[in-house]
Write a structure and sequence with these properties.
By secondary structure, the chain is an alpha/beta fold. The protein is about 35% helix and about 20% strand. The longest helix is centred in the last third of the chain and has 18 residues, at about 350-370.
Length: about 375
């Protein structure tokens, strides 16, 4: 493959890509970057041929071949080809300027390419690595193994001579805490293009429809949300849960709480949802209840806002001061009463008050979805590598 002389070529590596959706935010981060910047750069994507924790490959793709997907050329690798030898072969077959890696701990799509670089097979190639939240609220899982891995990587210098991409100031601090000499640029993930749509949803005082859309996994903190709802004895509350079942034991703990819900709170698990359905689902609920332990960006939070769904989230994301903006609440996880009070406020909200918050939310989304300033930062980085 030959690159166009007028464009730099960027090779993006991530474990999953479209049509996958179970891998969550990192997929959408890559898609949004590519679709927003395709006029200036040639993008290639090297990814797996199946979704997160799926045994079957995607339908309607050519495996171990290049596919045109949106603005990118995408190579879907089958599991038997995800070895050092085949990585070397594919990387040598593409003329690219920048290697953009997603996920610090990804054993296949980050660590193997870095090993090739350490062995001298990526000479002249610039490497960018974005942790995708691996250092934000997530290092507690398998903590000893992860910190041992980081220690060994420092000894052999596996992560030397690359540029780190942090998507928030918090993530930048997390990177520099673990790699003190790291060279980091910080710019937010790009959002999808926003189209204003008329959003009609009935809101009666006394009724509240809440939704949770994320992986069923401790970091996303569904159990905390359920514990809060268990204490609400007023109003009629519907709480629907969507997302892949990533931790069965954790889900059993959640079900034990669900079984103890008061009669006024109805909870239902709705199963997995494809990314194309998320906006429509969010539009059917008054608020997104998401007390996550930490998000470096939180695409699902942006998707909630784009659908006109108010936010009731933890203060461990970049989306802060929501009450002052009149579009929701971001509350410390140590303040359970704050979550309860916000839910009670929403229960009492009438149509007029709800419509005002939705209008403010629409105005806010119009403002943040203008990616022009952030795109300039990306371009400056890419051009100066």
């Amino acid at each position: 493959m030959s690159k166009k002389m007028s464009k730099k070529s960027i090779l993006v590596l991530n474990g999953q890509y479209l049509p996958g959706y179970k891998g969550g935010g990192p997929i959408q981060s890559c898609v949004n970057m590519i679709e927003n910047m395709a006029n200036e750069y040639q993008f290639y994507v090297l990814t797996g041929d199946r979704d997160f924790k799926s045994d079957e490959p995607y339908e309607n793709i050519k495996i171990n071949q290049w596919n045109r997907v949106g603005a990118a050329k995408v190579f879907y690798m089958s599991p038997d080809k995800q070895n050092i030898k085949d990585f070397k072969r594919i990387l040598e077959s593409i003329e690219f300027d920048i290697l953009y890696l997603n996920g610090f701990f990804s054993p296949i799509f980050t660590i193997k390419p870095l090993i090739l670089g350490k062995l001298g097979f990526l000479k002249g190639k610039k490497i960018i690595l974005t942790p995708r939240g691996d250092f934000t609220g997530g290092c507690e899982n398998k903590k000893l193994k992860k910190y041992t891995y980081i220690y060994l990587c420092k000894i052999i210098g596996l992560y030397n001579n690359l540029l780190w991409h942090a998507t928030s100031e918090l993530e930048e601090k997390d990177i520099k805490r673990k790699f003190k000499k790291a060279e980091v640029f910080t710019v937010s993930n790009l959002s999808a293009k926003y189209i204003v749509k008329e959003k009609l949803l009935e809101k009666k005082s006394g009724d509240l429809k809440l939704v949770f859309i994320s992986r069923i996994f401790p970091k996303k903190n569904l159990k905390f949300a359920l514990e809060i709802l268990k204490e609400i004895k007023q109003g009629e509350i519907l709480f629907d849960i969507y997302g892949p079942m990533e931790d069965e034991q954790y889900w059993e703990e959640c079900k034990n709480i669900i079984n103890k819900m008061p009669a006024n709170v109805k909870v239902e698990y709705k199963g997995e949802v494809e990314h194309s359905e998320i906006e429509n689902i969010f539009s059917q609920y008054h608020a997104f209840l998401f007390p996550t332990l930490g998000e470096n960006y939180g695409h699902v939070i942006v998707e909630s806002m784009m659908a006109g769904c108010l936010l009731l989230i933890s203060d461990t994301t970049p989306w802060r001061n929501l009450k002052e903006k009149n579009i929701g609440w971001d509350i410390s996880l140590s303040n359970s009463n704050g979550f309860k009070d916000s839910i009670k406020e929403m229960i009492n909200m009438n149509q007029h008050d709800f419509n005002i918050k939705r209008k403010r939310l629409e105005q806010y989304v119009c403002k943040i979805s203008n990616n022009s300033d952030d795109i300039k930062i990306y371009e400056n980085v890419f051009e100066n590598l």
